[in-house]
From TrEMBL:
A Pfam family recorded for this sequence: DUF4192
Highest rank taxon of the organism: Bacteria
Disordered as annotated region, ranges: 374-447
Protein name, UniProt field: DUF4192 family protein
Biased composition regions of type Basic and acidic residues, renumbered to the chain: 374-385
InterPro entries: DUF4192
Skewed-composition ranges (Basic residues): 428-447
Amino acid sequence: MTSRERPAVVPADEQQITLRGPAELADALPYLMGFHPSDSVVMVALHGGRGRFGGRLRLGIPQSPQEWGPVADQLAECLVSGSERRGSRPDAIVLFLCRDPEEGVTGHQAKERLRPFAQLLRTACGTLDVPVLEALCISGGRYWSYCCPDARCCPEEGNPLALPGTTVMAAAAAYAGIHVRGSLRDMEARLAPLDTAGAHSQQQALDSAGVALVSRILDTEGRVEVAGETLELAHALMDRLGRAPSGPPSAADTNDDRLISHDEAAAVILGLQDRETRDKAAEWMEGPEAASALRLWRALARRCVGPYVEHAAAPLTLAGWVSWSTGDEPAARVALGLALRADPDYTFAQLLHQACNEGLAPETLRRCLRGERGAAADRHDHGEVRGGQGARDGRRTGRRPKARTVPSQATRRRRTAPGDSGPGAVVVRRRARESRRQGRRGSRSER
């Protein structure tokens, strides 16, 4: 697609409820997605004579109107072909365009600006012989229909959305245990790079850690040591976060950021760029470890600042995997979508995103990772594990790894000396120059 964001296709679920008319459709949207899809286009497949909900697709609305035509064609093809792969071609589609008005713009004006995009989407679906039964714009707490010309039921000023928790859909969702997590914008903000005064210090820590680690990673034995140190430190941070009290998302995220130093974050972020290290970290996917691991991956994603934004693909993918593994599919899709926005070629995120969208169960991958973990434990029992892996597996045999203290930036500078021209510094500087030329930051091993 021309947009760097990839569409999230949500499989159908088993919940059944009858919706009648545009008002109930508009109210149902956040429950269908698990969040309020701000600044998004959402398409929902309908099946059979009664319009049973099928797959759902969401994509951020392209900023440039020149992109609307190609994106509309691809979205329609993606939803129809995805539904066919799951066994049934849709009989109709309902689409939603969600965008809050900018300052000084009314909801009606926002709706009219998006009318050409709505028409392109309707045409694209019609070309595939799948009609659009309803097209709604949701903006500023009101909704409009692009399909109904009757001003008596669809006035120019729009109709107000129902109050939260007052509709039959809200009651059914509460009974089924379905929770709406707020807006997509809020969910993405929890994973966005820091824009506070600490961002500059974090970038400096990442620069220093790169100088210290690159030369070690290029050496075979050094790479094994770095992997072990990364996993040991990550688990120590998980323990630290797990002991901290939880609270509302914003307060919890702020507290988590305070508990992790810039140097600690830099060491783990750079260590996770190694594919094998990242895959071992993915084993923290269930049980008591999962909640602490998720908090850590979110915190590390926020620390990927400045030219290190692309490095966020690893912690974002791990956050998406843990969310999916623990049953939070909406959060998983958001995290994996952001990982692919940071690095569209990140293979692990691509595979997880596709599997999650196609409704596959995460248990297959969990079994695989459990098997890897069990095999590592067996090797440890026979004294075959070296370095960091043995320290990590010690957790399963009752031997807790000792938390590693990350040297400060000043200590690192003393070790490497000002103006260091060793291989690590040369590689870092060369990669920095290449990243500025190519618009791609950092490097990592196989993904």
